[in-house]
Amino acid sequence: MANSLPPGGAADAATRRDFLSLTTTAVAAVGVAAFAWPFIHSMNPAADTLAVASTEVDLAPIAEGMAITVMFRGKPVFVRHRTAEDIRLARETPLSALPDPQRDEDRVQKPEWLIMVGICTHLGCVPLGQRPSDNKGEFGGWFCPCHGSHYDTSGRIRRGPAPRNLEIPPYTFTSDTSIRIG
User: Fold this and answer.
1) Which distant-in-sequence residues (6+ apart) come within 8 Å of 92 by Cβ?
2) What is the model's pTM?
3) CATH top class, domain 49-181
């Protein structure tokens, strides 16, 4: 009778079967990884987003009482050169009058410069108040016409449905006349 096992017996057949199983599994794993990589890679931030990880702003051209809007990470950032009256009004407001109590001194690094994200904390609208002709609301700061939120000269919510003050982004003064946001 002829032996149906290959030369070397049952041990060689099992070793060969194990080798083929491991090889097939490894090739399948590499194939799945190669297929999934483009989808995983697509979740990384885009190059244009990484390029704006920080924004430099020259404050020198902004006259007292004026404001500009710059973009940072796809969001508008309001930069206002506050007047002595703006600062006085913000500092004299009692914390008990604020829905989201926060001292003006805690929202600014230099009293004359207010830097904040210009997105209403209610539903993400962009409030009015950057241009001299804009409605600045009842408290002289910003007004969101979509739902009626009023912010004061420190960007704190004073009236309306917004639950929080306008956000202060991370920023540093790189000189007396320039800042880096981010």
Assistant:
1) none
2) 0.70
3) mainly beta
